[in-house]
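sorry for the late reply, my laptop died twice this morning and i had to redo everyting from scratch. anyway the thing you sent over, i finally got around to it. pasting the sequence first so we're on the same page, its 470 residues, then the predicted structure underneath. double check i copied it right bc i was rushing
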Amino acid sequence: MTNASLTRMSAGDLVALVKSREITPLEILDAHLSVIDRINPHLNAIVTLAADEARAAALKAGDAVMRGEDTGPLHGLPIGIKDVTETAGIRTTYGSPLYKDHVPAEDAEIVRRLKAAGAIVTAKTNTPEFATGANTVSPVFGATRNPWNPKLSSAGSSGGAAVAVATGMLPLAQGTDFGCSVRMPAAFCGIVGIRPTPGLTPNTPTPLAWDPGSVHGPLARTAEDAARMLDTLVGFSRRSPLSVAPPWTSALADVMAAQDAKGLRIAYVSDIAGIGVDSEIDAICRETALALKDAGANVEEILFDASEGREPYQVWRGLWMVGTQYANLAHLEAFGPNLKGNVKAGLNITPLDLAKAENARAKLFQKFADLFERYDLLLMPASPVKQYPVEQNFPTEINGKPLANYTDWIAASYLITLMSLPAASVPAGKTSDGLPVGMQIVGPRFEEPRILSLAKIVARARPIGWPPIT
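ok and here's the structure:
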């Protein structure tokens, strides 16, 4: 078995081969390190490589298999951790010059869970400063480029994670998502990424322990692999005050069992945010959604306007930025423009602003609740625009209509965040110039298995292959 073939396999297949002793974790690691060595200099997805630590862990993982020990669902798999998530003994910079040499003493709880499942922490992946940006450009490490066209953005803020997975540098990667940060990079890079229901994945450590906004989620090449990783992340934690246990036993079991979409009630909406959407992207997503009728689903294109949530989200985002950066406020003027602007906007928010925003948010949640009485899942374009130049901070217009600020273009994603709903992005096809198009699948709270089951069916019907740079 060649090194190249190992890096093209699914996470599930690699785990099975390790357990059957057909390959070793060290062989898997070395194969992926070879791809990293060849590709990462061109795309800049991985910013800290922990090769020595990973090799030591891979040898231990191999010994455990040979001794016949029970092994976990990710046993022997190299994995990437976003550079805002703490890793013991491995540099974690948060994409900030303030922390460019920071090495945590302890793992984040999510990292401990991944290690307990057998994953081998191999790399830290690039992110913008404190994950504030939908284009992955770090003041510490520079820009991460898109493997479908390196002149274009990988989106953000988990852009490094998405590129590493899309190119076979890693079989799986962890990301965080507050506005769109797992879903948009997945869409731009042609892979699967899911933002789980807040509370399912523990956020410890975080300065905002009761925060339902930022969640950890998997990035993978298949829905099955995303479900496999999700199962290792979820579960009750006494260290997280919002923590809940999932009402399902195994997302992976449900996804593996799903063979069609028979009986599912699906709504397709072009634009829930009132900002517009590129016509080619809309056409691809609509066609893919309507084609689910062939898999047994009842699909209806509807109008659904959630644009009244855009102003409340900006209020909520501003307060979140101040809270997460409270310990660093003395360095406010040293922040980059995205982070500085967000924090300064948050400092100007009044109690009346917050009260108004929360009242509007509550009403919008009921609007979504009513929608999910009629439909099981909501489908829409994950991004309203195609991949844009990597040097550009954000898109400035959609269909010739100027955008008001740098977060407007991700409104269809952040409105789902505002509602505390789970959502995934899955490839729905490619544009005429060969770029992947992501479709966002949204469900009621705790419907991750159903979301990923449909993602599996979509991906099976609309395979896009590997990017040119692999």
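The chain has a mean pLDDT of 97.
thats about all i looked at so far, will dig more tmrw
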